Amino acid sequence: MERHGACLAPFGAYLEIADGNYVEMFEDRSLGEVVNTGIAHFCLETEDMDAVMEALRSRGVPFSQKKLGCDNTYQIWLEDPDGNKFEVHQYTPTSTQYTGGVIEADW
Q: Is residue 89 scored above 70 in pLDDT?
């Protein structure tokens, strides 16, 4: 959520496209009125974040520290060779994608 004065305004949504599979859409108002911005957020899902981290570590691929996001979903971040950042996440039983509700983004 983004603060506008005293209230919070929605800036994103999770769309369930198949059982347990979601498309996450987030608005980035800092981009202004640009029509085609390309991909601003790309995320891959895993069922075993620790195994992904071990595989990346064994191959010398740098990634961020694992953290539990404000949506109660574990996440790490990587960069492709061109410097584009992307996320890998693992849902938990209390992930907002499953439980619904409103959250305030911490990034």
A: yes
